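Q: Convert this sequence to structure tokens.
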Amino acid sequence: MKQTTLSSAFRTLFIAVMALTTATSFASIPLAGIYEMDARPDLSKHQMYLELDFINSRPDFTQSFTGKRAEFKLLPADFMNAKKLSQKFKGSSAPGFGKYRQQTLFSNTEEFRITNPRLKKGVVLVDWENTAGIKGEAVIIPQSDGSIITYGLTSFDRLLSPDGHKLQLVKSLLPPDFGRNFSDYAQPGSATASFVEEIKTDCGPDLKGTLKRLKEMPDTSLPEQSSVAASETPQATTDGKYVTIKMAGVNLQSAPDTRSAKVADTHMGEIFRLTDTPANGWVKARNIATGNEGYIETICLFDSKYPLTAPELAEQEVDEAYLVNTDVTEVCEQTSGWSFWKAGGNKVKALNSISLVYNDGRLRGYQYYYKGVAKDGYLLLDEQVEYGEENGTKLESPIIVWEDIADHHGVYVNGKLYMPANSGSGFDTDDWGE
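A:
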């Protein structure tokens, strides 16, 4: 492994790479849209503009708003005046960004970034940070009409905060074939509706206790949908030989029933070969790399659109990553990248570069090298080596690099999609010094 300390001169390059990369690890949460609030209880005014995308992330507001005025459905045209926007998050991307304004006698405004979304049986727990560096946690609660309600968002006193006020969905950002909507969790008759209503009721009198309860709950990636939503969801057919997991949190079950025992976890992008179609809405399938076999709901699958081939390999060693993925946490922004090249026969070598930009300005870079073999549909990396060495250490759990057989956007590693960076946005930490 190589470690380098990155000079501040390269911070801009890091941020540019992050902005270009749209894939993240939030694909299991079907919440992506633009929301507006203009609530006027009593003599006060509560206004908010909120962009959320827990599938692909969003650019910060300085990248979206460049003029004095913009077109909104509920808010005044000058609400996102570019000259008045904070530069705190300039050039970055995250699962969400928002601006809130409260006015009674005086007007107060706060901009914030949302990170680390976790689905908790139908509601989402998130972290947030405002432009002053104040951090907190909040819960986002779905409504059956597509709107959302938040509790805990912003540093405002609760009486002045947006708590409990409805944010109207003005534009959906969900992919057309994603298959689920956040509002499904609140639909009457769904398995999660009563829990969603319970959390909404409890947040008012006991927000601190409710947040604590949600934090202690295990993350849930795939709650039950309403029967209406499920019937309208496009499903993978069983005509093809191979299918791929299209969302996180999908379990391989021992029987065609969500209540059956779990055979194994799966990750987004994993490839399965169909072996049986036992019941409507389910298939039996075998993981082509691990051999794990069980039942999967067809709603969780994409059909293969391309032949089953190994991920593309460079002809010779590559010294910088050309497939990248960006993730934002409460402490740093991480860009991870991969490159792969031929090493004779079906043997391959790989470079994994990880670059960290911390909130306090520190930058770090790491490089790892691996060996393995290329197979139809994936690469199996089972040995870690030092740079320039041929022999290394066998991995207890091999790294599987999955070809994207549904869209050919890139490769999947541990459920994350790594996509080609735009020309010139690849990075090589070898040349970065103090």
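The domain at 230-303 is CATH 2.30.30.40 (SH3 type barrels.).
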